[in-house]
Amino acid sequence: MPSNITPKPPRSRCLKCLKLLDKVDPFPSFLLELAHRGVHMRLLHILATVWLLTVVSVTIVPAGEPTPSGPPVVIPVAADGVQRATVILDSYSYSPNHLIVEVGKPVELTLTSVTTITPHNFIIKDPAGSLSVEQDVSAGKTVTVKFTPTQPGTFPIYCDKRLWPMPSHRDKGMEGKLEVR
Q1: How confident is the model at residue 78 (pLDDT cuts 50, 70, 90)?
Q2: Within 13 A of 34's CA, how many CA atoms are on the CB side?
């Protein structure tokens, strides 16, 4: 910034906003003070970005508290032999998150995302390889997955999506289990 140009002080409305904001977080006022002292704008942008990311991450992370496991839902076998259920994908949770199905009978799950921005996925993986389901579900969309479990057991259901550097959706509690009897 040339030395012959002095920054204009903020208007009175801005000062009122800054005084109010100072009660919550004094950092924006600190940035303004640095600007008045002639600190390079690139440094101010970096500091403002770090501050904003910190504020946003502190706001978002508590919203991802793990949800307690709901009661198990036994999926009935329809007349055509298919076990059908709807699973709601919300902000870091599945509902229901504990499904019970019969071995050897086809399963058809309708996955409905009720989020407006955040995409999710629905993953069931058996480490032994007898069951593998992976389905992306865009925000606000509905998809159907079909599979037939061939072995009894309990298999984890989870979402592995994540926004770097935040924890994965699974880490935030978006998991459940599929019990095959």
Answers
A1: very high
A2: 16
